[in-house]
Amino acid sequence: MKMKNFDGIVANKKKIIYDLIHGYIEIDKDVEEIINSESFQRLKHISQLTAQHLFPSANHTRFEHSLGVMKLAIDTYRQIEGELKEWLNKYPTALYQEKQEEYSKFLFFHLKYAALLHDIGHGPLSHVGEYLYDKNEILEKIKRLLF
Predict the structure, then answer these.
(1) Are 16 and 26 in contact (CB under 8 A)?
(2) Reduced to 3 states, what is the DSSP secondary structure of residue 78?
(3) How many CB atoms lie within 10 A of CB 79?
(4) Cα 32 to Cα 10: distance, rounded to the nearest angstrom
């Protein structure tokens, strides 16, 4: 398995966003570029709350939710990173022994962006219409884009 170089994934933290639920969220240059995109900005107009009629002053959008999920994923990874490296050391394959740090960065990178982008494709009514999608077709398109 060939892994890409993910050295810059933690460097150059430039912005901090304050979230009412999650507190301060550090935003690096790559995340900033994503959240400034039109596709991500549209999440500001999609409510994350399902019972807003009970609490009319409550506000939580998919934009805020996505940033919070990313922060929680990063915090969780940081908590288990040492244990993960210990676990990887128990399986002495060439991939884990020789490229352990690179593999750790690889996992962190993918977790961070999966968390940030997990809601990016949501339209109205969220998951209600997902049965209409051809999941095999979507998977094949993703494979073509990645490989």
Answers:
(1) yes
(2) helix
(3) 10
(4) 13
**Do 65 and 20 contact (CB within 8 A), yes or no?**
no
The model's pLDDT over 92-147, given as tens digits with 9 standing for 90+, comes to: 665 556 677 777 888 899 999 999 999 887 666 566 777 777 888 888 887 786 66
Render pLDDT for 60-84 as a digit per residue (tens, 0 to 9): 788 999 999 999 999 999 999 888 8
Domain ranges for the chain: 10-45+57-123
What confidence tens digit (pLDDT) does each residue in 18-32 have?
988 889 999 999 999
Query: Which segments of the chain does DSSP mark as H helices, in order?
Result: 29-35, 38-41, 62-89, 94-98, 100-117, 135-146
CB 106 within 8 A of CB 3: yes
Say which CATH topology domain 10-45+57-123 has: Hypothetical protein af1432 (1.10.3210)
